[in-house]
């Protein structure tokens, strides 16, 4: 994360055999992982109403400290939105942003389009064709030969549409990356709208259906985008909010200002001065070296702020915003780890034990990239901890990328 004293939260509803699975990654001032990072809680007979979900999230806020949070990303379910409303009322004086899973929003947009009469006919026709080809070995063989001839087998495949196959859309794949992509959420929706406006007149859709699609894009855009998305786009050195409307820019700037007032280690007036220079390419930003470094594809925005803009307080605000998640995909990936542990053959595992095993599995992956730097724990040296370091040792600075760490909370209903 941008600052060990600030954490982000990803909250995702999950239906599985266990009642509730929660994982938390917490960093102290020396960038050393806390030992108390995982817990499991049974929801028992409680229904997942908005009030109950809010109470569970509130417990995490209280445990870690409400002032350490600036964002909470959930899915777009009605109970989650109810929880947002409760929090926005309770924490009106804090710059905590509550927003939905961007990739889920794009999936909802796809569902809006598939409900149209013309697209429904097209999908049913495609299903019928796939069924015929797959039912005949001769046709299947001819199709495979065609794939080989074109030498692009992945671009021409026989797949039935399913509710969870989201990755067929470019922007969903991009936003679900392990990298922080919150700044690209606005870019995704802007590009999608441009493509629709260009391609829809060339399609077989009626004018009424075309209008419905454009209305759906606007509705989903309004549902998805919050001031934190606009501020992330503005603070990204390659984007600088160049595709945002005047109203969106104002909302983004207001959020940056409120966050600057919230952070204890910056002066809001200095942040506003830095922000003005940044947006107008004046002062520090006048030099060609700085401008070239800002758009260097090999330097991430967060690394650029930390390495090049070290002396400017705007960097703390930028790092805070740009390290927020665009989706709760990190939570989903931890659930995949859980599914590989709590299998049909190991279905007698208790919730607590399965959670502990998932914690070990998931955290080992975080350290796998720097396995060569982690010492081997031996029975001969009892002073070494689980990761091979003595209690007072400081981990190598490059062994943990705190800008990528997230706090995840998974809520689900037991079967």
UniProtKB/TrEMBL annotation:
GO CC annotation: nucleus
Signal sequence annotation: none
Domain DUF659: 41-129
Pfam families with a match to the protein in the record: Dimer_Tnp_hAT (PF05699), DUF659 (PF04937)
Cross-referenced InterPro entries: DUF659, HATC_C_dom, RNaseH-like_sf, ZnF_BED_domain_contain
Domain HAT C-terminal dimerisation stretches: 317-364
Keyword NADP: no
Compartments where found: Nucleus
The keyword Metal-binding is assigned to this record: yes
Primary residence: nucleus
Protein's name in the database: Uncharacterized protein
Source species of the chain: Ignelater luminosus
Organism placement in taxonomy: Eukaryota, Metazoa, Ecdysozoa, Arthropoda, Hexapoda
